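fold-stage: in
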Amino acid sequence: MGNAQEKPPGSGGGGGSRSQQTTAGSGTRSRGEGSVRKTQTQRAPEKGLANGTQRENSTVGGQEEQGSPAVDTSYLDAPAGALPPHLARLKNEGNHLFKHGQFGDALEKYTQAIDGCAEAAVDSPEDLCILYSNRAACYLKDGNSSDCIQDCTKALELQPFALKPLLRRAMAYESLERYRKAYVDYKTVLQIDTGVQAAHDSVHRITKMLIEQDGPEWREKLPEIPVVPLSIQQQHRDKPVSAEVAQARAARAAQEEVRRKEARFTLLKREGNDLVKTGQYQEALQKYSECLTLKPDECALYTNRAICLLKLNRFEEAKQDCDSALRLEPGNKKAFYRRALAHKGLQDYLSASSDLQEVLQLDPKVREAEQELEVVTGLLRQSLMNNTGHTPRV
């Protein structure tokens, strides 16, 4: 194969035939040796790896390239099951290329490893299953769904109920609109691991399509869904989890927690708003307080809770909530207005007047602020007169 943009024969889900397929031992197909050689000769000489070895001191026009950073190729020598070292290197190089999006080149390495297993008479169904499954992933990425299905099927013959080839074959079936077979594979995946969210999502999506396609009798037209033995399910549960899988599961769990919190928040806020409308301020206050444990930086929650506190004559707490809202949104009109009411309740008419003037400066059309400013100005005047009347003359 050439670079990652080149697609294997039959790509695009077309299912081009595999020529010169070898028998039982390797089960691989020739990918057209001439085209491979042509692609390899066209590949730029400075492109990193070739045949599992690092190109060092690459030259241009006979001159040694100076100052090129050393490339770490230690991953090539990582153990790979029961594969001999030269085949393990091919597999590891394929994995590295796949991770970097070079699917065509990765496919070539996996093919060489599969062919090498046949030549070396490697008897390791698990390792061969992984190689076929990995090559199937390359086909899937390149849009060659038919070859992906064949490789997954071969992998499943070697290791029945292996999770990854089952999932990849289901995706390939779905891309070819072979929805019944895709549904069966996705349901089989979920027997092995109920935590595969992609399988859950696909089952829901395909169910709708099958109902539209086959009507109420859609289940009767499905192929039989195999029953996964309990021993296989237990083996999967007991299998050590790789760092990548653990990271993916943690990410899914975090996403689910975010969705759960968002749904809970929306429900509590709606309930709080409804309780305010019916004058149940104490109950509404509790709802808003619970919302704030989920989203402590939501400005509207502080101004909403301030309404409840004002209605319950808890003016100091209402003022504090408005202070919090204004720290989050310094120009929030509602926070200024409700803090003015809290100041009024605390008989701090000067602060109330100042906050009301802030409201009118932000929006001169707020009629309630105008009216409240008139009231507060009168109270402030009366308060000053009272204080003056009790102040002894010097």
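fold-stage: in (second)
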Amino acid sequence: MNKIHINIVLIADRVNNHDDATITSKTLEMVEDEYFNDIYNTLSSLTTKKIYHYINPKIFLENIHKHKNDIVLSIWSGVSSRNRKALIPSICEAYNIKYVGADTYTQIICQDKEMSKQICKKYGIKTANYQLIKDKDNLNLLNFLKYPIVIKPNFEGGSIGISQKNLVYNFNDAEKMTLFLLETFNQPILAEEFIDGEEISILIIGKKQKIDMIEATVLYDTTNTLNLTKILYDFELKKNTTIISEKIITNELNKEILVNAINLFNSLDKVDIMRIDGRLHNNDFYCIELSPDAYLGKDTTFALAYQHNSKTYSDMLFTLLNNSIESD
């Protein structure tokens, strides 16, 4: 097994599980026990040195003098701040500490769903028509969209604030959901036209101008009881892994879609790992969101993609660590 020879700092906030999650839950990106154990144990096997765990950036900062020559991997989420995903890379760059994952700029771009759409368009990746609702005085903007539409918080990930109720078919329901989310999350709300199509993820691991892996997956229902093209992939479906699964479809996609994804990845400079989620409609890919903070458990789609290439979960984590160690 490949190994690195420096300490690893793992930053992760934890919850036992998300079994009781609701549409108002703000902790859906926090790390469940099974996920933490998977990544902690595998990282421990990949270094000849030590692994340290801190539950938040504050405690990491209090101990940062110990880690000037170590490497940081953060799966910390935090809550209720549009800047939260940028904290760890900012700290690492300020102290010249190597870290896995996207830099501050990329984290901020991808945390902002509206801004992500602008970046996608620049690199030939389509997005649904949308409006950004900043407060209740902007509700008239909902009239400029073709229904059905999806209503979601602009600065959240992990399906926070998204259930099947967020897919609405008329102005009255859109208005009610928008007001509910404005009050619950206290941030701008993105309203976008619903794209009828298969749920696709484009998975990329690598460094700028050096792609280690790119694959695409599609969601499917193992029971053939759900029409996934007509519903949202919300937090409840994400929990139901006995019904929802994924398979590799890279060779079935138009190659231009993959080229555009690579060009976007390279444009953001330090990313290391990214999942580009979207929908395939009439052979066109429409991006829903960019996730440089993708889930990294053993059952992640990235592990599936590595397995497809005759590699292991350990190989995947080693690649991420090694790329960051070797980077300038």
